[in-house]
Amino acid sequence: MAPPRSCQLAALLVICACTVAPLAPAAAASVPITTCRSFCGNIMVDYPFALHPGCGHAGLRDLLFCINGALMLHLPSGSYRVLDVDYAYRGLTLHDPAMSDCRALDRTPGGRGNGFVLEPWREPYLSPDPDNVFLLLGCRATSPLFQGFPDRHLPCRNVSGMGCGDFLACPAWDDYYAGGRRPPGDDAAYGDAVGTGAPPECCAVPWAAIRAVNVSRLECEGYSSAYSLAPVRAAGGAAGWAYGIRASWSLPESNRGFCGACRATGGACGHDMESHADLCLCGDWNSTSNCDSSADAAPSGAAARSPDAVAAVRWAVLASGCLPVHFWCRIDITVVARLEIKLVVDCGFPF
Ligand SMILES: *[C@@H]1O[C@H](CO)[C@@H](O)[C@H](O)[C@H]1NC(C)=O
Ligand SMILES: *[C@@H]1O[C@H](CO)[C@@H](O)[C@H](O)[C@H]1NC(C)=O
Ligand SMILES: *[C@@H]1O[C@H](CO)[C@@H](O)[C@H](O)[C@H]1NC(C)=O
Asked: Nearest C-alpha to atom 13 of ligand 2 is from which residue?
């Protein structure tokens, strides 16, 4: 006897449910790689960074944005173009259009708002490299930079062989001093000029000395930043430096194990958008550990999802008016959920 058409439909629904819906969180996930990884222009954005909310590490949330194909990093001090993300060395190379370099100075009496200032909660996760030099330009004598040092000993120094001595020899200063200003002497670079009452034209510091480059708070007119990737001195002095900001990120040690286990079980590493705790994204549910541990399902819509799917199938089967099939199907759903999708083949009907 051929079963009614509605039964065939119900059977089809059951098979579809068996095949498509992961009926229980216990089934290991295989989250598409594109869930959290993406590209902006030709730069890959991957963990711990992300362009999607909830992806990436919480310490680096709300940081990168893809704007007209340009990857931008947003901080309280401004927006920086991301030129490179080096996942092997955990390094970011940033460019600030408002910074001076060897060819052109960008100075205004009030100081441009830029520099480099991080949100306090982000500081453990992101910071400029120790061999990145910040060159503060035209700071006033009253600048916090020059206060509080015993015997007026200035914080200005060379960083990784880069300092104001070389920077003041840049062609950018030719135009500046062509305007009738006093050309900097050798002293200007290290503040020996303080004896004369004048602050140094330029003061080079590493990030660790100030931990926030707020150009206006430091009462400066501008800044520059350069980094060296090789321990050799660049030929040609400051003209040969790489201008920009080199920053690196670091994550808590515990994150490595968490993320490794999450990925190994087919998940994508992310974070809870409210608590900011690590979260393993397992497709249609989230885990506080990994996609093999249904006991660690994060409380959210996820838990209700699977029972919903089963209920929908039951309803469909009941509605089709073939009760014997209903009973048989229910048992089968359980079997499929515990074992593997391979069983779907046996999840047929006798017609
Ligand atoms: C899982 O977490 C992500 C990121 O926090 C969130 O966008 C998503 O809605 C969550 N999924 C479920 C099923 O709760
Ligand atoms: C920089 O300093 C100024 C003046 O102290 C302050 O108003 C501003 O909020 C600071 N900017 C940042 C990004 O911290
Ligand atoms: C900084 O570097 C310049 C150029 O290499 C060098 O001439 C100068 O003596 C250095 N200054 C300090 C204070 O180390």
From this structure: 77
